[in-house]
């Protein structure tokens, strides 16, 4: 009875911990997806802003031909900014991908630990069953047999010769 209760308690603890882990991984996935959506939105907005800026700069260059050499420097700087921004967006994408990869690896590790724990728990249960419960049952049976034998031995009335056969009954 105690072993069954212990098994139920351990199974409940494991189920609750799995539920908490699943909830936190679900929340982590949602947070990561929200972050990626926001980053993509920001990068799209920044990319469109930078393109709009480049287009405006080209218009200014055409209208102000005498400042062409200045506008060429500005355009190259804007292109460099655009490349730097693109590199940063790629870096952010790599970071998010790495975070997702690390999260997946951690989930696999947690799964492996839980599987290993369950295996060890089952092995321990088998060892307890074999090395503790069976010998205790056998010892209990031996003690019960000794107790019954002693009770029988000490509770039995001794039959005396006078009580068993009176003299009158011997002669028919």
Summed up:
The protein is an all-alpha fold and 172 residues long. The chain has helices spanning 2-63, 68-155, 161-164, 167-170.
Overall, the morphology is rod-shaped
Mean pLDDT comes to 84
Largest sheet: none
Separate helix tally: 4
Low-confidence stretches: 158-162
Number of strands: 0
Description:
The chain has 172 residues and is an all-alpha fold. The protein has one domain (33-155). It contains four helices and no strands. The two termini are 64 Å apart. Mean pLDDT is 84; it is low at 158-162.
Topology (SSEs and partners):
Blueprint: H1 2-63, H2 68-155, H3 161-164, H4 167-170
Helix pairs in contact: 1-2
Labels describing this entry:
172 residues, mainly alpha, rod-shaped
